[in-house]
C-alpha cells in the first residue's frame, strides 16, 4: 500500500473525531465541504474536528455535519471512502426539513460534475474575451471547435443529470442515460439526412403518441425534466423488481421502463417541467423588472450568507434553468461583487494583521477568492472568524451587486464568479456597470477592513502590550504515570502525528491537570484545549475513544472560558472503571499548532508525576 498522504491523515483524523466509521450514516461532498449524516451526533467531537490539520471549520446545517476542507475536499473524500471503510453515498441521508432535503437533492445531483461546468464555462468566458479583442476570431473554425468544447457539456446536461440522479434515487444508471438520450435525440434527429421528424427539432411541433397530443419543449440543457423522469423510473423499477421473475428481469425491466418513461416524459413530465422551469425563470425576471438594483443588492449582500448555510445550492437549478431558456441568468450578475468583495476584505486582513498564522491563511484564501471565486477558505478562515471584515464584504457586495444588476449584467455560462471569469458577462447588459460595481465592491470591502480594522488574533505578543517570552515553553505531564512515545500510542490519528507533536502517559493517578497556564478554549469530559498567553495551543485527551462514554467515569473540574494555571485540575477520572469497560486509559498531551519554525522536544523520563516537564517547545 502507498504511503499515507496528507489527505489520508486529514481523512483519518476527521473520521476518528466524528466517532469512527460506524457513526457515519452517509457521506458526500460538494465543492468545499464533506457532508456527513451521523448516526449519533453526540459522538462527534466538533472541537477536535476543527483542530485537525486540513480542516477549515465545521458547519452544522440541515441535519448535516459539514466539515469545510476547501479546494482539496475531493481528495480527502476519496481517502475517506477508500481507506476509512466508509461507504460512499451520493445522497446525504434525506434528513431534516423540506429545505434541507432540497439542498441535499441539489448537492447530490449537481456536485459530481460542477467543476466540469465551471471549467467549460471558463473556456467560454475566455473565448468571449478573445472575440471582444479580435471580433473576426468568431468566424474561424478554431473558435467553433473551442466553442463546441466549452458548450457541449451544458448542451448535453441531461445526460450528466441522468447519471447522478440515478445514483441519488437508486435507479439503473444506464436506463436513465437511455431516457436522457431520447430527450436529446429528439432535438438532434432533424439534422440527420433523410429523416422526416423535423417537428422534434423545432420545439412545439404537431405530434401525437397513440393519438395523445405531444408538445415538444426544448430538452437540450434542460434540468427538471430528466430529474423527474429518473425519479419516476426509480419508482417503476422497484415495482418491476417485485413482480418480474428473475429469469427475465434483467432485460424486461429496461424494456418496460424505457418504453413507458420516454413517452410519459414527452406527454406529461416534459411539458409540466417546462412550465415549472419557465415559471421560475419568469419569476426572477419579473422580480428584476420591479427593481434590478434591489434584487442585485439582496443577491450581492446575502450571497456569502447563503454560502455559510449551504443555501446557495438552492439557486443552482434556477440559474441553470435560466441558462437553458434564455442563455443567461440575471441572478449571476451581482455575484461577482459579492465574491470579490470577500476576497478584497481578506487581502486587507493579510496586510493589516500581525498574526503570522493568520497571514498564512489569508494569502492563499485571498488569491483563491479573487481569482477563482472559491471563498469558503476566506470566509471561514479569515473574514467570518474576525467578524467585521465579513460585514465589510457584505456591504461592498450589496452596493456593487446593486450597480451590476442595475446595468442588466449577467453571465452567459455557468461559471464560478471570480476575476478570471468576469468576461462571461461581456455580452449581457452593461459590462461597464459590471466592472464599476465589482470594482467598487472590492474597494469598499478593502478600505473598510484596512481603515476601520478588526480585533486581531493575538500572536506571541499580547494585545494588552505585555511582552510574552516567545522562547522556551515548558509543557508539563497531564497526569502521573508511565510515558508512552506518541508513535506507540494505540490510535493511528494520534500516533501518525496528524494532530501535532506530543506524548502519551499511562496514568497511575486519577487527577488530570493542565500542562500549561492559559485559557480553556474547549472543554469536554474527555478532552480539553488550552491556549497559552503566547498563543501555543495544547490538547489534553483522556483515554482512547472515550468520547463514546458520554462523560461516564469523568468528573470535569474546568469549564470553557476559564483560566487555569499549570497543575490546576482539569478532571477527576475513574481510570480503573475505564479499563473495566475495555478502554485504553492513555492520556495524551498534544501541541496542535506548532509552526515550521518551532522545535518540539520530548522528555526522556520514563515515569513522570503531575508536575514534571514532559515537552519543551522552542518557538
Automatic annotation (TrEMBL):
Span of domain PTS EIIC type-1: 104-468
The cellular location(s) given in this protein's UniProt record come to: Cell membrane
Query: What transmembrane ranges does the database entry give?
Result: 113-137, 143-162, 174-192, 212-232, 252-273, 293-316, 328-351, 363-383, 390-411, 431-454
Annotated Gene3D superfamilies: Glucose Permease (Domain IIA) (2.70.70.10), Glucose permease domain IIB (3.30.1360.60)
Q: Which residues form the PTS EIIB type-1 domain?
A: 8-90
Molecular functions (GO terms):
transferase activity
Instruction: Please provide an example of a Pfam family that matches this protein in its UniProt record.
Output: PTS_EIIC
Q: Keywords, A to Z?
A: Cell membrane, Kinase, Membrane, Phosphotransferase system, Sugar transport, Transferase, Transmembrane, Transmembrane helix, Transport
What is the active site of this protein? 30 (phosphocysteine intermediate)
PTS EIIA type-1 domain location is 491-593
EC assignment: the record states 2.7.1.-
Top-rank EC class of the record's enzyme: transferase
Coiled-coil-forming residues are: none
- Quote the InterPro entries the UniProt record gives: Dup_hybrid_motif, Glu_permease_IIB, PTrfase_EIIB_Cys, PTS_EIIA_1_perm, PTS_EIIC, PTS_EIIC_1, PTS_IIABC_b_glu, PTS_IIB_1
CDD domains noted in UniProt:
PTS_IIB_glc
Q: How does it sit in the membrane?
A: Multi-pass membrane protein
Q: What is its main location?
A: membrane
Q: Which NCBIfam families match?
A: PTBA (TIGR00830), PTS-II-ABC-beta (TIGR01995)
State the protein's name.
Beta-glucoside-specific PTS transporter subunit IIABC
The organism encoding this protein is: Demequina zhanjiangensis
